[in-house]
Each structure stands twice: as C-alpha cells, then as structure tokens.
Amino acid sequence: MSNQSVETVGSKSGYVIVALAVLIAAGGIVGYSFLTEQPTAVRLVVLLGGIILGLAVAWFSQPGKQFIGYARDSYNEARRVVWPTRKETIQTTLIVFAFVAIMAIFLFVTDKVLEWALYDLLLKWRG
Description:
- Essential subunit of the Sec protein translocation channel SecYEG. Clamps together the 2 halves of SecY. May contact the channel plug during translocation.
- It is found in: Membrane.
- The protein is mainly α.
- The chain has two domains: 10-81; 83-127.
- 80% of the residues lie in helices and 0% in strands.
- The chain has four helices and no strands.
- The protein has helices at 12-34, 40-59, 62-79, 86-126.
- The longest helix has 41 residues, at 86-126.
- The N and C termini lie far apart (71 Å).
- The model has no long low-confidence stretch (mean pLDDT 85).
C-alpha cells in the first residue's frame, strides 16, 4: 500500500472564480480586437490589463493555487533533469542515422527481391 495522498475535487466556487478569470482575460483579448480605432497603446493596455486581471483573479481560487504549486513542482523537476552532453547527443544522432540508412538499404533490397520474385519468376512462369 502506498503513502500517496488523495486529492479531492475542490468546491464549485473555485471553478466559478477560474471561469470568471478566463472571461476577464478573454474580455481583454476581445477588447483589443474591437478597439481598432484607438491608439495602439490603449489597445495594449486593455489587452494586458485583461490578462493580468484575469491571472490575479485566478490566483485567489483554489484550483489556481493548485496550478501554481504544480507549475513550481514541474519547474523544480525540470531543473533536476540530467541532460546529455554534446558528445552523447552527437553519438546518439549518428547511431540513429546509421540505423535509418541500414533499414533503408534492407527495405530496398527486400522490395527488389520481392519484385523480381513476383514479376520475373511468377508471372513469366505462369504466362
């Protein structure tokens, strides 16, 4: 038996707040596209204001806090990844290229043998 904790679904109010945040951010995007007659600076303020306000509203919801925690954990996990060196990457790439070339030659030879067997031997023998 594992010691993992079980997460329960949050309250409906948290999801309502997230939906409200999405609508606010979408309002900023829609406002940007509808204010074509306004100067670009005003349009950008509406766009960025909507997105920032939407993020701020989402920040205070339970699902928003869970997402932020998940994003932090994902970032920390990505920092712990041991990436291959340049030499390892080049060697692996060359192995893949060699395998592809060998498979291409094998498939070409197999195709030509089947072509010869079917067209030259079987059809000439039959006909």
